[in-house]
Design a protein that fits this description.
Shape: elongated
Radius of gyration: 19 Å
CATH topology of the largest domain: Tetracycline Repressor, domain 2
Number of helices: 9
Structural class: mainly alpha
Strand content: under 5%
Length: 191
């Protein structure tokens, strides 16, 4: 992507953010966005298919990419805190975005990234001990639902706890998983 294209996308995204401060996602029109950023509809449609595409681009570039980039079992908690802080600093926008009808795509992105992390974490923690791939996937998805659900609930309930406290709660659960995964009692699915 060229610098000009990237800069234009950022201008459109900033205009969209400004409009979302005043209107719910569902009520925003393309005209609202283009009027806010001083561009025409053709420019908007050159860069984005619709407002859902724009929202997904913002969520992906601001939340998913920074979280997933160089993510590993040693730095996941710092990255989680970083993302929670970004969301909290832009709480009105993210509350509106998470409550948007099309927010499922973002939740699925987040779920997939966290599931992959738990699969990788399981592999690293059990070392040479073989783990059935179905068991590993089930456990990773189970934990991912918990983490993703906790983040979504935190946003939807007004982010009453600090990003640090929220990240700490999740960290405690994950650290307990680490102990469980490294024990000789790592279960195999009875199926």
């Amino acid at each position: 992507m060229s610098e000009t294209s990237s800069a234009t996308k950022k201008v459109i995204a900033d205009g969209f953010r400004s409009v979302m401060e005043r209107k719910s996602f569902e009520k925003i029109t393309i005209a609202d966005i283009t009027d806010q950023c001083g561009l025409n509809r053709q420019t908007f449609y050159y860069h984005f298919q619709d407002k859902y595409d724009l929202l997904n681009w913002i969520l992906y570039t601001e939340v998913i990419m920074p979280f997933a980039e160089d993510l590993n079992i040693d730095n996941w908690n710092e990255k989680l805190l970083q993302i929670l802080s970004i969301v909290r600093d832009n709480s009105r926008f993210y509350s509106n975005a998470f409550n948007a009808a099309h927010g499922d795509e973002f939740r699925q992105y987040l779920f997939n990234v966290i599931t992959e992390l738990f699969c990788d974490m399981t592999d690293r923690l059990v070392g040479d001990e073989p783990v059935n791939p179905n068991d590993k996937q089930f456990i990773a998805e189970f934990l991912s639902y918990g983490v993703t659900g906790s983040i979504i609930k935190w946003v939807r309930t007004g982010m009453k706890t600090s990003p640090e406290a929220t990240a700490k709660y999740i960290q405690i659960i994950i650290n307990n998983f680490r102990q469980f995964a490294t024990s000789k009692n790592f279960p195999a699915c009875p199926v």
